[in-house]
Fold:
Amino acid sequence: MHGFANPARFLRLARSLTMPLLMAGLVITGASLVWGLLGAPAEKLQGDSVRILFVHVPAAWLGMGGWTAIAVASLTELVWRHPLAGIGARAIALPGAVFSALCLITGSLWGRPAWGTWWVWDGRLTSMLVLLFLYLAYLALADAANRDGAGQSRIPAIFGLVGAANIPIIHYSVLWWNSLHQPPSISMGKSAMAPEFLWGLLAATLGFSLLFGAVVLMRMRAILADQQAEARLRRRAMEAADA
Amino acid sequence: MSQPGATSQPVKAKHQRLILVLIALAALIGAALLAAWALRSQASYFYVPADIASNPPEADRAVRLGGMVEAGSLKTNADGVTIRFVVGDGKARVPVQFKGIVPDLFKEGSGVVAEGKLGRDGTFVANNLLAKHDEKYVPREMAGMSADQARKTVEETR
Structure:
């Protein structure tokens, strides 16, 4: 892992991976969403509104997966001081926030026809909203820490670890507490979902995950480029002062 | 970013940080679990019939009641807009009365969350109904249709 402590090496790999990830992600996501819209069967009780599943569930998983990745990167940052860990966490936060917001929006649109309400303050919906707020706070904090200069990424890393406490709460909210949201359909290799829905869902999740990965690589490259440009400016300013 | 301590004894500093972070994480997870345990009744979105039976809320206090609509219990009053049904959870049963438009997914044998008040006669008077569906997703064609459902599907395609 510390082989990538050299950003040049990481950048070479990232540059060659970004486009394939992006293209594969676009194709798989597009195909699975078109299939979800036109090819998937209507659900027994919910009818056509079940099709929003193919956006809602991958968005929820990626929102939660994104913060899990931030927590792992934060641990790496705090313990091993890996130079890319903080940059990776910052890069993940934006797509993570977008997917959490997408989960909440599609969930609200789905809740109206299925439950009869746009929003309720039950355990699942509330803890997912908290996750979105955590992402927004993380983005602001990491941005501020970055402006304070290199080596100030420890506070966002601590926040990233603390915020991870919300991830199991989101998962177990529907099991611990009575909630309007139903318990998970897929757990430990078992699926209460008919295969028609399950395979479409897994394909859409793969597609969205590839897009997520592509965006993270792009953002990491952008952050590294920013840091290089800043370092160069600082060096020039110093040379000018010496002259 | 290297620190003076980190350069002289790199392994030790690293391990020290790892242990510190792990202790902090364990404390954090413990705190979160304690909080979740303390919230176990407050964070629930509704009472189940067994809760209502063992510890009935004061009359006229707004509460939510959740459970299954018992099969065969759904009746419409003579006025045509007031419905009555029984919500059960396998342990207790609460009769519910509601006047208004029900959500599409509200039906017998399915989950419901009723918002309202427990009347003095033990009937729950709901002012809003939310449908609660389960985690099973079954395609319409495959759903070993009953005669009733088949008739509905045919009506929909007409």
Summary: Helices of chain B lie at 4-8, 10-38, 49-54, 147-157.
